[in-house]
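pasting for ref
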Amino acid sequence: MNQKITIGILTVSDRGARGLYEDRSGPLIEQIVTEQLKATVIEKAIIPDDLNAIRDSLIEWVDERRLDLIFTTGGTGFAPRDVTPEATRQVIHKEAPGLVLAMLQSSLAVTPHAMLSRMVAGIRHQTLIINLPGNPKAVRENLTTILPALPHAVELLRDDPAAGKHH
């Protein structure tokens, strides 16, 4: 891959957005992707568990910033305010269920609680959006699982002439 992969990291957390706790998952994602993918993190934000805020951030990062990859962390569980997957589904054009399946399979080997995750992965234009859990340990496990496939995924999206019409 000749040009660096550009990345956005969106932490979804009511408490994190209010400054009540330190986001550990966002910085962990940044560390992993910069070290292992040699990627560049262009956008970072911490926002509350709010469907419209999540959706609007994702749309802006895809349509205006044209990032290659966006990771969300948080808001994928069963709690009433967990709406990250719903917001993601509103913005993607195609789902990427293989990524989610791979993450769930590897996580299930660690804990049965993995089956309570509702992560979504999908494509909007030439950007791949992947929901990760909020827990740093789960973030590391899930990201490590899918990392080997991500450069090729980005390459395929960059080469897609149909997707290119958007730009």
